[in-house]
Amino acid sequence: MSAAPRPKDTMRVARLDLWIDPAFDADIGREPGLALQVLPAHGDAVTAAGLAGAHAYHVSAAKDEVPARWQVSESLLAACPQLLCVSSGGAGYDTVDVAACTRAGVAVVNQAGANAASVAEMTYALLLALVKRLRASQAALLAGTAATREALMGHEIEGRVLGLVGIGEIGARVARAAAGFGMRVLAYDPLLPAGEIRRRGAEPADLAALLDAADVVSLHCPLNGETRGMFGAEQFGRMKPGALFISTARGGIHDEDALLAALRDGRLAGAGLDVWSQEPPPPDHPLLLRPDVVATYHTGGVTHEGRRKVAQGSAAQIAAMLAGRRPARLLNPEVWPRFLERLAQRHAPHGLPV
């Protein structure tokens, strides 16, 4: 049996008091040598002091949940000299400046794939709600206005072309499910070779060709400098007349005003949106008021199962990094040698370099 760690050997893990599946606290608590501190998200001195003394920081991936002061920025890193690693609580990492972390020697991980099943399922929930006209059907039932079922006639997705922008963990699941629906799948992903895209169940295509051919365009890419604003008037204008647009990715990748214009002009037949530039969007947002839009509250990955897997994955990666083991979802691999040096210095006698 290993001896209990001496206090000076204890590595401190911090998180804010935002909701997280209890598996995170339980898993960190079972790790010898790790101590968890839960800090008030709307605190001041207590939170600042806790983060300043932390070696690892688990932070929500939702930018609108985390106060700006506690997002992982250059200024926060400067105030947290002991911080060795950061774990984003989702596939996204909008609350973390990865480049600043790299400069500071801080390793960053996300939980890509942990909630992939949940988000892939939401993609089809939005798509099927659109083509089966579920919103209109329920409204007619509540109002008693539907004279015939034919007035609410929808469409099939069998035989349609599905265009995926990004075919990572989530996109690959969406592609596999599409085969069961009898859809043909195209995918644009500049980070993957053509052979890998085919292995994941899609035909590779450049973005222009995908927009020309797809009956449904679904976004599955991260929000970063390359993807921010990548879907605007030009891209919506190139989509097939009557096509559908789906996003379970991140707000900010598509231009909401340009999407609204494409729907108003009749260029697109509908949109399914789980993500927004401002979350939640205001209740009078014009996209929310349209009958050809199915909208959700960025809940694609928010399932009991998905949140539990995210929490477990974050705890496991933090424990691995603080033990000197390379994690599975390292976002800045170039930082790893420096991270190991900083970790070794922390364990050296009296904090002297080894």
UniProtKB/TrEMBL annotation:
In this chain the D-isomer specific 2-hydroxyacid dehydrogenase NAD-binding domain maps to 125-300
Keyword terms of this UniProt record: NAD, Oxidoreductase
Q: Which SUPFAM superfamilies match?
A: Formate/glycerate dehydrogenase catalytic domain-like, NAD(P)-binding Rossmann-fold domains
What Pfam family is a match, any one?
2-Hacid_dh
Q: Which residues form the D-isomer specific 2-hydroxyacid dehydrogenase catalytic domain?
A: 46-332
Q: Where are the transmembrane segments?
A: none
Identify the domain of life. Bacteria
Give an example GO molecular function. Answer: oxidoreductase activity, acting on the CH-OH group of donors, NAD or NADP as acceptor
Q: Which family does it belong to?
A: Belongs to the D-isomer specific 2-hydroxyacid dehydrogenase family.
* PANTHER family hit by this protein: D-ISOMER SPECIFIC 2-HYDROXYACID DEHYDROGENASE FAMILY PROTEIN (AFU_ORTHOLOGUE AFUA_6G10090)
Q: Which protein are we looking at?
A: 3-phosphoglycerate dehydrogenase
Query: Which species does the entry assign this protein to?
Result: Achromobacter pulmonis
